[in-house]
Write a structure and sequence with these properties.
10% helix, twelve-stranded antiparallel beta barrel, mainly beta, two-stranded antiparallel sheet, 45% strand, single chain
């Protein structure tokens, strides 16, 4: 953690340090944190998602092929949880001549700290090596240089969807280390860009309960608006590079099925529109995806 903090912009480092100190005070004062958890007996959660196409923040990864995404989270102590997440396409091929690919892989790990029932802080490392050998890339796992395949994401998540009158969700994420550099007009002098993404959504719960049959009960509808605020490093390749870019305009319909024995099966249908003015021709700007998950 100290290594990452040293690499951050001074103002961002100061703000994050104050935030972490506040969180530690909350942790010390919070004697009811365990009572807020739905399941105090289980310290871990596991899931596997089967996604028809991997879309992340309005970006398509791996072409139109299906992806499998396992994840695991373990509660270390109190409100502190560590986790891992990965994605791999079922069919992986080399890149095509137009720059697209039928495959993608990524491995992430990180930690989340729950400041309150509606607020959490996450610090995650993204590792995304190419499917084919790239002599210009340094694939070392803890390499954060200009030719690395690693990025560190720090983010705040606000979730008022449970037990609050207005079920808003919001997130603010900034890359604080890794291959997120902007360059001058000559392509020289790399500078850490601290690319920041902001998102807000609202959960409309059980929208069909009063007007439909049992088949469509307990369906939630969640519209989302997400934008990258400073994309000069072109980390979000399918976005505008010189202005705020609304790359993730989406709406999801989801329902969770209880399979018993602590196992559930969330099913989600998601439509995503990338509203960027440029750079969407390669993968497209409209995506309809389906995700079936198994969670324990």
């Amino acid at each position: 953690m100290s290594f990452i903090l040293k690499r951050m912009h001074p103002m961002l480092r100061k703000s994050l340090s104050l935030l972490l100190l506040a969180g530690l005070r909350l942790f010390a004062q919070n004697t009811e944190g365990a009572e807020r958890r739905e399941n105090t007996d289980r310290k871990w959660e596991a899931a596997i998602d089967f996604q028809s196409r991997y879309i992340w923040r309005g970006q398509a990864y791996g072409g139109s092929t299906t992806a499998v995404q396992p994840s695991f989270a373990y509660n270390l102590i109190g409100e502190l949880t560590v986790g891992i997440w990965a994605t791999q396409n079922f069919r992986c091929k080399d890149y095509h001549t137009d720059g697209t690919s039928d495959g993608y892989r990524e491995f992430d790990f990180g930690l989340d700290y729950q400041f309150a029932d509606f607020l959490s802080f996450g610090l995650w490392q993204y590792y995304w090596p190419a499917l084919q050998q790239d002599l210009e890339a340094d694939t070392r796992f803890f390499n954060y240089s200009t030719n690395s395949v690693t990025t560190v994401d720090a983010g705040l998540t606000f979730d008022f969807s449970e037990d609050y009158r207005l079920a808003f969700q919001a997130a603010l994420n900034t890359f604080i280390a890794g291959n997120d550099f902007r360059y001058d007009s000559a392509g020289d002098n790399p500078v850490q860009n601290f690319t920041t993404y902001a998102e807000i959504g609202y959960v409309f719960k059980d929208v069909f309960d009063r007007i439909s049959t049992k088949t469509f009960r307990s369906i939630n509808i969640t519209p989302v608006v997400g934008a990258v605020l400073n994309n000069q490093a072109a980390y979000y390749a399918a976005g505008d590079y010189n202005k705020i870019s609304f790359i993730n305009l989406a709406v999801a319909a989801s329902r969770e099925f209880d399979l018993g024995f602590g196992v559930s099966m969330p099913v989600t249908i998601n439509y995503t529109h990338n509203g960027a003015a440029a750079n969407t021709s390669l993968e497209g700007r409209d995506f309809l995806t389906a995700t079936v998950s198994i969670k324990y």
